[in-house]
Amino acid sequence: MNKAELVEKMAKETGLSKKDTEVTLKSFVETVSKELEKGHEVQLIGFGTFSVGKRAAREGVNPATGEKIKIPASKSPKFKAGKALKDRVNKK
Predict the structure, then answer these.
(1) What is the pLDDT of residues 1-10, one digit of tens each?
(2) Residue 92: pLDDT above 90?
(3) Residue 87 half-sphere exposure, CB side, CA atoms within 13 Å?
(4) Per residue in 43-55, pLDDT tens?
(5) Dihedral angle over CA of 24, 25, 27, 32, nearest 10
(6) What element of type H or E holds 13?
(7) In this predicted model, what pLDDT tens digit does every residue of 70-87 receive, in sequence order?
(8) What is the CA angle 46-78-71, rounded to 5?
(9) What is the pTM of this model?
(10) Cβ count near 15 (within 10 Å)
């Protein structure tokens, strides 16, 4: 499912216009992104938790040349599904 399809389904379920739904979705994504940028986590009970993971600096190998390279420390966004979402996905 792409963004346009998601907006269409959300608009149908909420009764909002596609334009209002897209603004709402963009606001959600922007708000979560800003909180992660600050290092905070966003928890949606029953759905999951968005958080920031940290990776330490390390040494790697360039596969093309075999040369050793330094990989700098970095942060990456993570999502951990909540129990209700896991149960729903695994429902038989």
Answers:
(1) 999 999 999 9
(2) no
(3) 5
(4) 999 999 999 999 9
(5) 140
(6) helix 3-14
(7) 999 999 999 999 999 999
(8) 170
(9) 0.81
(10) 8
Query: What amino acid occupies position 35?
Result: E
CA dihedral 38, 49, 21, 16 (to 10 degrees): -140
Secondary structure element (H or E) that encloses residue 85, with its range: helix 83-89
Structure tokens of 8? Answer: 């269409």
Residues in the chain: 92
Q: Two tokens at 73?
A: 């420390």
At CB < 8 A and 24+ separation, what contacts does 81-84 make?
81/47, 81/48, 82/44, 82/45, 82/46, 82/47, 82/48, 82/49, 83/46, 84/46, 84/47
CA distances from 3 to 9, 21, 29, 41, 51 (A): 10, 11, 12, 23, 22
